[in-house]
Amino acid sequence: MRRTTLLSCFGAVRPVLCLMLCLLLTACGSRHAFMNGETAREGVLLVAFGTSVPEAQPALDAVDAAFKAAFPQQPVVWAFTSQIIRKKLAAEGRPVGSIGEGLEQLAAQGVRVVRVQSLHVMAGEEFAAMERALLLHVKQHPERFASVYLGRPLLESREDAVELARAVAEDTASLRSGRAALVLMGHGQEHGRAGLTFEGVRAVFHDADRKTFMATVEGSRGLDDLLADLKAARVRTAVLAPLMLVAGDHARNDLAGSEDDSWASRLGKAGIRTLAHLKGLGQLPGACAILVRHARESTDDLTQEPRKP
Ligand code: CO
Predict the structure, then answer these.
(1) How far apart are CA 214 and CA 243, in angstroms?
(2) How far is CA 227 from CA 8, 182, 224, in A?
(3) Which phi and psi angles does 147 have, rounded to 5°?
(4) Which of 137, 187, 250, 277 is flagged as catalytic?
(5) How far is the CA of 137 from the centre of ligand 1 (A)?
(6) Which of 9, 34, 48, 232 could be 119's S-S partner, Cβ–Cβ 3.0 to 4.6 Å?
């Protein structure tokens, strides 16, 4: 009698236990699942240094469209890290938020799983600062997101560089009929690791096409090195293009501007005919494909300890 009571008692409790166990397994099995079984809302945060040059807009629009196509149903929010540029844009009535503001905007839309995609060309100073800002936000709002995945910048691996070299070669092929060289302007930075990454990228591009040359506007490999390379290769004609996400201020002034010290002017003085191709990498479908792939493939969740096998 007593035994029967116990069993029937357990019988009543069992469905509840099952339900609890199911919920527990669901929660553990997929970090993107809510307790009610619904999938957590996901969203994308695109992070760039920023630009206020109107001519840069087509590249930003192309990146935006590529991400909206790759992540349909998800909010795609932009953040610019440069405070000066954010202030300028706000004054012009076309505001773009900071990293913190972008994350807040996503949280307000119910997003629990964020894919942050760096739109930097290489993991230099700006990328490191962005990562620190993200980590600080996660620390300050520990309950806000279930996961914050960080997508690596455009040129992270040798494969990325090979893929981008192909995309750039295709994009410029029709302009280089004959024997025109291709000269690419990277941004670079005065100190730090980006200079080494740049040298790797330069080698990959040069291996793919001996008539592709590269230097930086702010990095350790500058215009004088470039002029020496072009002279040694007896280059007479060159297509100039930015190795940057957008064809903004650097592309329009430092690369193709009419000032005496622009690359176009200096190459002209060295007897090289130039044609400026002012198109940001963001406008190349091949470059957008790399960025989207990095966003999709990232397993680097900033809310968790790094996973060790
Ligand atoms: Co700059």
Answers:
(1) 9
(2) 89, 13, 5
(3) -150, 145
(4) 187
(5) 26
(6) 48
The two three-digit tokens of residue 176, written as one number: 């280089």
Q: How far is the CA of 141 from the centre of ligand 1 (A)?
A: 32
pLDDT given at position 109: 97
pLDDT in tens, 228-282: 999 999 999 999 999 999 999 999 999 999 999 999 999 999 999 999 999 999 9
Token reading at 79: 């953040």
Give the integer Cα–Cα distance in Å for 276 and 55: 14
User: In terms of residues, how long is the chain?
Assistant: 309
Confidence band for 38, pLDDT divided at 50, 70 and 90: low
CA 188 to ligand 1 center in whole angstroms: 8
CA of 21 to the centre of ligand 1 (A): 54
93 phi-psi bin (left φ>0, alpha ψ -120 to 50, beta other): left
User: 256: CA distance to ligand 1 center in Å?
Assistant: 15
218 CA distance to ligand 1 centroid (A)?
A: 7
DSSP-assigned states of every residue in 150-205: EE--S--SHHHHHHHHHHHHHHHGGGGTTT-EEEEEE---SSSTHHHHHHHHHHHH
Active site annotation includes 294: no
- The strand pair at 212-216 and 41-48 is best described as unpaired
Contact of 80 with 112, CB cutoff 8 Å? no
Residue labelled with tokens 């002017």: 265
